[in-house]
Design brief:
Belongs to the phenylalanyl-tRNA synthetase beta subunit family. Type 1 subfamily. It is found in: Cytoplasm. Keywords: Aminoacyl-tRNA synthetase, ATP-binding, Cytoplasm, Ligase, Magnesium, Metal-binding, Nucleotide-binding, Protein biosynthesis, RNA-binding, tRNA-binding. By secondary structure, the protein is of the alpha+beta class. The mean pLDDT is 93. The longest helix has 17 residues. Helices cover 26% and strands 27% of the residues.
Length: 791
């Protein structure tokens, strides 16, 4: 909050700040004071030191702690002296690790508190820009602000560690808010407080950077802008306290002034930077290029092994070797050393997708890569670089050469959006005047000219009129917009395909099936278990599967259905009926989307289940869906099914699918010791041929008559062929049903007897016996043409 207040004086209560920022679109996750749980620790001055009468190592100290009388504390620290300014814990105080400090006695002498080391205040040596003792009490006499310290002053206030930390949840479309300036802009608009911001600038010293180093960008698609600046006579040292405190408050460990400046600018402007020691840039050349096969790079991360670079990775190289991975991390020798004297500052804009892929591949997701991968604008690179050079001069840690190398290939043009304030109001259901909308947009940093909104370069999320409406709404206040009923031109409803699918599900449930849901990705070994042919095993392969068992997209829903059957059988469920509207995937070519097909897949096993019940389920479904001209043909060449108990199902000559007994070997492969009957039926084909119109038929006025025919034919003649002839030939036929099949002594070898009941009825009169006999005679004559005779 101290940092934010440099740009926006948000001096309201913290609860009000976080509540209003959340309501305006910058969601606050949590907040806390940096000094928690430190309490009742004050600045004190040592007035007098004397040895403890009963110990050679203990000192009795009299301290001025801003009280009416000196406070006596006994300590074993050996680095104290009279006049030392120290942090002192008073009676009933708390230090950083939560330890409570109370008064007591040490070897009989009263001690009314404790003096602290920097560690007991939750700090490290990097938090100070002057030497502090590793052992002993923290001595504050060398602090640059010591003259402003008052005895009894809260130590966190004195050391500027009483800051409040606010943590935001930043969405991927707002990388501008991954910066102090971005959040300051949001706070400025939310609370209507003007921004205190001026463009960064630096003076520099005369010089020509191109005489010291050259820059070339070979891949301008992945690097739209690369800027470099030179700093000579660098003085490496600790950062000033204000900078170190702000970095630590942001979760970044202070290292030294040069490194801290790059981190400071990244947090302030949201644009990552890097600094190279010129000594390690061979040939004084910087080349932005793709890595070459076989190149490696040891990163700044001390624990990491050298990274193997691949040609799709963008790197920063010198004249001979890689020195950094663009947008991710610098190499081992690209950092700042204690003896560094000349530094090259880099501010660039790299392609977000390339950075994300590279960071993921090498397993190094950094603060820099997390910003680049969301998309940064090349315009901000210049501002970030100038801010870094400004800080160099402000801290006096080097001489900035006043010329800059700028390889700019971005061709950036500010986006302009037409502003229609009436449309915004219609879209929001609000009544916000045009001038008020324009003022809101200007508070957020947008320009306005001739009815057009000029989008600032940091706002990569602004492209459409609805984006403008969102900006207006969140700053105006959602709670101020009245609730209205949406005006819809049409209401949403289920598509015909969805209605059809619901009907199929209802039919399956009515037939006693349980609906299951399975994964679409399977193991390629399942194809072998199912005895599928090689052509049917060609699948879409997942690039990053969870494992081999889920590495391909199924081409047959039966693979997943048999996993359900196996699980139930292994749990001693000796009968079951299961179905799923499942999706199958068929590859079409490399880097192309597969063809997807929905099927009704069902399986049944157990007592009383056979081929005819499985086929009967299909027939019932087809009949209820209104499919006409459905034909079941014996299928002997499908290796997944039993060769004598499988039917190919077609409608008007178009294949619907297959129904039959799963091949016994396939069932055994899945560990099921039972006959399993199953089917896969195309939802698309059934939908295209379904007749949803229900037609009323009056009850018959005239009686029916029937004739039973016992026929003899070769064993290989399908009953369906016989039925087809009967249906085509028999006049006044209402229904034909097979009611018996016989093989035995009365039937010649290689032959079988099939018995059918023919139900006949005339619509306009009673059918006479002579007419019925004539129908039968005509049927028998037609059957003789396919080798079927009356028994």
């Amino acid at each position: 909050m101290r940092w934010l207040n440099d740009y926006v004086k948000a001096d309201m209560p913290i609860k009000e700040f976080v509540a209003d920022m959340t309501m305006s679109g910058s969601k606050v996750e949590t907040y806390h004071k940096m000094s928690d749980p430190i309490n009742n620790v004050v600045v004190a001055k040592v007035l007098k030191l004397e040895r403890h009468p009963d110990s050679e190592k203990l000192w009795i100290c009299q301290l001025d702690a801003g009280r009416e009388e000196p406070v006596q504390i006994v300590t074993a620290a050996q680095n104290l002296f009279e006049g030392a300014i120290v942090p002192a814990c008073m009676h009933n105080s708390t230090i950083a690790d939560g330890t409570k400090i109370t008064k007591g006695k040490l070897r009989g002498v009263a001690s009314n508190g404790m003096m602290c080391s920097y560690a007991e205040l939750g700090l490290t040596k990097d938090d100070f820009d002057y030497p502090v003792a590793d052992d002993g009490i923290l001595i504050l006499n060398n602090d640059p602000d010591v003259d402003s310290f008052r005895m009894g002053m809260d130590i966190c206030e004195a050391l500027q560690t009483d800051d409040t930390i606010v943590e935001f949840e930043i969405t991927n479309n707002r990388p501008d808010c991954l910066s102090v300036l971005g959040l300051a802009q949001e706070a400025s608009a939310t609370f209507d407080i003007p921004m205190n911001y001026t463009e960064p600038s630096f003076k520099g010293v005369d010089g020509d950077i191109t005489k010291e180093i050259s820059v070339s960008v070979e891949n301008t698609k992945l690097c739209s802008r690369y800027m470099a600046a030179l700093v000579k006579n660098v003085k490496i040292g600790p950062s000033p306290k204000w900078m170190a405190r702000r970095l630590r408050a942001s979760g970044v460990r202070p290292i030294n002034n040069l490194v801290d400046i790059t981190n400071f600018v990244m947090l302030e402007y949201g644009h990552p930077m890097h600094a190279f020691d010129l000594r390690y840039v061979e040939d004084n050349r910087i080349v932005v290029r793709n890595a070459k096969e076989g190149e490696t790079l040891k990163l700044l991360d001390e624990m990491a092994e050298p990274v193997k670079l691949t040609p799709e990775m963008l790197i920063i190289a010198d004249g001979k070797k890689p020195i950094a991975i663009a947008g991710v991390m610098g190499g081992e020798h690209s950092g700042i050393m204690e003896d560094t004297t000349t530094v090259v500052f880099e501010a660039a804009c790299f392609d977000g997708v390339s950075v994300r892929r590279t960071a993921r591949k090498i397993g190094e997701r950094t603060e820099a890569s997390s910003r680049f991968e969301k998309g940064l604008n090349p315009v901000n690179a210049e501002k970030a670089l100038k801010r870094a050079l400004q800080l160099i001069e402000m801290l006096g840690c080097g001489e900035v050469v006043n010329t800059i190398i700028d390889e700019n290939h971005s061709e950036y043009v500010p986006e302009r959006l037409k502003h229609d304030y009436k449309w915004v109001n219609e879209h929001l259901g609000s009544d916000i005047s045009e001038n008020e909308q324009i003022e809101i947009l200007k508070k957020l940093g947008f320009g306005y000219e001739n009815g057009e909104i000029i989008v600032p370069p940091t706002r990569i999320d602004m492209h459409r009129a609805c984006d403008v409406a969102e900006e207006v709404a969140r700053i105006y206040g959602y709670n101020r917009i009245p609730s209205t009923i949406p005006k819809l031109s049409s209401q949403g409803k289920r598509t015909p395909e969805q209605i059809f699918e619901d009907k199929v599900i209802s039919l399956a449930l009515a037939l006693g099936f349980y609906e299951v849901m399975t994964y679409s990705f399977i193991s390629p070994k399942d194809y072998e278990l199912l005895r599928m042919d090689e052509k049917s095993r060609k699948s879409v392969v997942l690039r990053r599967p969870l494992g081999e068992d889920t590495s391909v997209m199924r081409t047959s829903a039966l693979t997943s259905m048999m996993e359900v059957v196996r699980r139930n059988w292994s749990n001693r469920n000796l009968e079951g009926r299961f179905f799923e509207i499942a999706r199958e995937y068929f590859p079409t070519g490399e880097n192309q989307l597969p063809v997807e097909r929905d099927v009704l897949c069902y399986a049944l096993y157990g007592n009383g289940e056979d081929f005819f019940t499985a086929k009967g389920v299909a027939e019932e479904v087809m009949a209820k869906l209104g499919l006409k001209n459905v034909v079941y043909t014996a299928e002997k060449n499908n290796p997944t099914f039993h060769p004598g108990r499988c039917a190919k199902v077609t409608v008007n000559g178009e294949l619907i699918g297959y129904v039959g007994q799963l091949h016994p070997e396939a069932a055994a492969n899945f560990g099921v010791n039972a006959e399993v009957y199953c089917a896969t039926l195309s939802m698309e084909v059934m939908f295209n041929n379904a007749d949803g119109d229900v037609k009323y038929t009056a009850l018959p006025k005239f009686p029916s008559t029937y004739r039973d025919l016992s026929l003899v034919c070769n064993e290989d003649v399908p009953s369906g062929d016989i039925v087809a002839v009967i249906e085509k030939t028999a006049k006044h036929l209402e229904a034909v049903r097979l009611f018996d099949m016989y093989k035995g002594e009365q039937v010649p070898a290689g032959m079988k007897s099939l018995s059918y009941k023919l139900i006949l009825r005339k619509k306009d009169a009673t059918l006479t016996d002579d007419e019925a006999d004539a129908v039968v005679a005509k049927v028998l004559k037609a059957l003789e043409n396919i080798g079927v005779t009356l028994r």
